[in-house]
Every structure is written in structure tokens, then in C-alpha cells.
Model the fold of this input.
Amino acid sequence: MAARNRVREGFTLIELLVVIAVIAILMAILMPALQRVRTQARQKVCASQLRQHVLGFTMWADQNNGVLPLPNYQGNWLWDLDIQTVNFMLSSGMVKKMFYCPNNASMTKYIDHFWTYSAQWDGQKLSGSATSFIVSGYCYVLDDQKGERAKNKPIRNVKNKTGPKKWLRTSSDKNAANLELCLDSTLGQQDSSKKYGYNFGTITVGGTWAAEKIFDTSNHVKTDEEPYGGNIGMLDGHVEWRPFDDMEERYNTNPCFFW
Done:
């Protein structure tokens, strides 16, 4: 009787290498797509958080004759938010992580440093002096209590001197759908060697770097040289995504703020 042919077991080395190569190619194709999906998901979470900010500000105004929570600012950065306002927003249902964009790796990693920048936190509310504030992950287009921002710091395209914007004081305005109230923090440190003339990923001008040696960074950073863009919360409550190419430098303090 003829001997039966043996059944070959396992892979040859060449076949194994081919399989590994195919898996590597598939991963190279899929990983960027998965990264885009994660980034877009975080953008949607960010947009939802900004809606909560607008709602919180509106609720404040409803209890204060229509006046928004105007800051008594010590600093010049647009993401400084006084603790009285923060505590009110916490009492309305917000939580600490909602003050920080999930697409800002530095802030989400060192959230406690930004949260207690000049305040104390007992797990429920913030305390400190009358001028204490947190460093939020979002920016606020609010006039100050004395009206000095509106008087001395007009918001416009810094380079072209065009496109005036408005520092907000009240929650009611006939043009509310076009007035920015809360924004993703899109900010850059001037650097002529970069694509747009700014560094968006490792900002070392004052701020948290000076205090804690923690980098300030722009939200939704694509590369060190360019953000994807940012969510914009309007006074009427809706939030829209604005690509970075459609943004303009509006507030020039180095770092410069864009929206």
C-alpha cells in the first residue's frame, strides 16, 4: 500500500514574514484613520463642554439682570476664569474636567496645576482671594468689570487691523448668533522659524511654564506649527467648529490668541 503523504504542519519562515508584512501594512493604513476618529470624537466632547460653558454663563446672567460674569482680572490671558464664576458653574452641574479640552494633552495630564493656579480646592469648591482664578482650557471673550478691555484693547485682526469683534458684557444682543463668547484656547508663541510664525505646542512665555515648568499648549494641535482649529461657543448657545485657516490673530499678548 502506498505510503500516505504527510500533512505539513506550521508556516515556513517566508510565509510567516509575509503575514507579518501584511499585518504591518494594514496597521499603517488603519492607525491614521483610527487616530482621526479619536480626534473627531474628542472634538465633539469639547463642543459639548463649550455648550455647558455658554449655558452656565447664561444662567449667571439670568440671576444678575442680564450681566455676564465679568472678571476682575489680574492677568491678561483669556483663559483666566475667576473662582466665583467657576464655583457657580460647578453648582449648576459642571465638573472639573469639563473646563479642559480633551484634545489638550498637557492640560489633561497636569489638570490639578491649572485648576489650582491661584486657588485652593477642597474637592467641592474653590477658595482664595477676591482675585483668585483658575487657568481654564477655554478662553472667554468677556469685558472686565470696569470696561477697560473694551475701551483699551479692541479685538480685531492684529496684522491687518480688520474685522472688529466685541467684548461681551450682557447675555442679550440682537446679533447673538455671531458673537463669540467661549472658545477653544488656540494660542501660539511667536517663532519666525515656524510655518505660521508661531509655536503652538510648547509655549514657554510666562504662564504655567514660569510657575511650574509645565508647557502651555494650544488645544487641538496637529503639529507644533499648526492646530487643527477650534470650537467656538456663540452667545446664542450654538457651537461651531472653525478650521485654523479661517482663524485670525485677535489678541496679541505673546502668546497670541486666535479665533
Remarks:
- The mean pLDDT is 88.
